[in-house]
Request: fold
Amino acid sequence: MAEPRQKPLPPLRPEIENKSLESGQIGEVQVPLSAWERVVNLDWVRRFTILVILALAWEIYGRYLQNPLMVPTFSNMVAALWDATVHGPLLERVYTSIRVLLIGYACGVGLAAVFTALAVSTRVGTDLLSTLTAMFNPLPAIALLPLALLWFGLGVPSLVFVIIHSVLWAVALNTHSGFLSVSETMRMAGQNYGLRGVRFVVHVLMPAAFPAILAGLKIGWAFAWRTLIAAELVFGVSSRSGGLGWFIFENRNQLETAYVFAGLTAVIIIGLLVESVIFRNIEVRTVRKWGMQH
Amino acid sequence: MNATAVDSGTPGAGSPVPLLSVDGVTLQYKTRDHLVTATYRVSFDVFPADRFVLLGPSGCGKSTLLKGVGGFMKPVEGTMRLKGRVIDAPGPDRMMVFQEFDQLMPWKTVLANVMFPMRVSGAFPRNEIRDRAMAAIEKVGLSKFRDVHPHMLSGGMKQRVAIARAMAMEPDILLMDEPYAALDALTRRQMQEELLQLWDDTRFAVLFVTHSIEEAIIVGSRILVLSPHPGRVKAELNAHQFTHTEQGSAEFMDLHRRIHNMLFAERLEAQALKEAGHG
Reply:
């Protein structure tokens, strides 16, 4: 047998202990960022830049194409938007749409609350909710419009019905999965305080699942908006006042393409406002402040 | 904080009436495929001002036992009584401190977290709740952080808040489920000293679960050693004479070795058999 190879060992070194610690060469430990870095760090600055670039591209393409019937320029659209807002019926149309939208949204969220309350309290409720969401969530709300027209006639009730359908399942599904993801420790802590039933749901489950609930509300809002505009496009005006969808439809019929774009832009602006003002504020005041979302 | 200031307390000839009495308790829980027996006919008594430690390797059912006392599980056999009443549901007379940091409600500030159980239990007059909460936070040394949300705190601070929240309720018994297991060693040691100090101030009864022999000897006044699969009582030992200051002393090491041998007896026997076979 060969001599066993000597196993390597690290060299033996003297111990070191620093009596005084200097940090002279590093300079200040905290240095403020440059002005440029701070500006670029602002979300809205970056997003606004993207919008400006898109608008510029649109304007250039519109001028190059020279076909206002197909693609009006950005400036034409802005002029049309201004005209429709100040002199035309745009504000009235927006008001009509948003009123119907809010009624439908509120009903949908209320129903979703009832369904999820049932689902967390009983097993039958859970089965009911998961079956119903599996059935109806993939069904486009607009596909129910013919039926709604048959049942409720031309008018607000039909619109509200399809909006409820589009909001209900998205919100209920998100809220329920939010409840299910609340940690066992949090549940036990809540029960430990003697919380039961409704008080447990209100004080523990709802705030703990709030990020998911908020996500559901956002998705529900977007679905409701889409459904409403689509429904208005389909059956147009009810009684005297139509909504934004009707505004778009009407202007297309008159080949006022710039006004069609103005109507679409109004939809986008309202969506952005709701998202960046209302939902964003709720987010900052709740889930971000609580460190549940970053 | 200095551990030497703590009088670790030689039990007096105090009241012989147990605060918590666990009598022949068998606990079982279901997983998806199995019915698991966590503890089998476990009995012990906890007296007022006891620092009672449940010690054992993983799988000995110590946490399950604590959940049973907390009222989250019903025993299939035996009874658990707190002050003579049978435990059948969770309640604020047995405040629990969990190992996980997410036991604090992230949507409430430190102060609101401590006030919340006092508010919902209705056990305290409304106008006193705030002052009591402040006092409890003061005790764990977090007055500066009382308006901060939990996500801004370190792990040790979160556990302190959880302890303050539980202590403010003045429960009959404090239940602690490996509260320091997720902390780093330095913080853990500091928290152990603080707990002993708090105990020295108010002399509450605590049921403490741990898998660390050292922690059991330092924190506990009495140690219930459990064997695994299923959890059965191996021994009930006294450890009231030891704190951090005695750590490393001959008696401390003796007790440590004794418990170690109890917990690993089976493994040692198996090893001895194996070696005998080879010889």
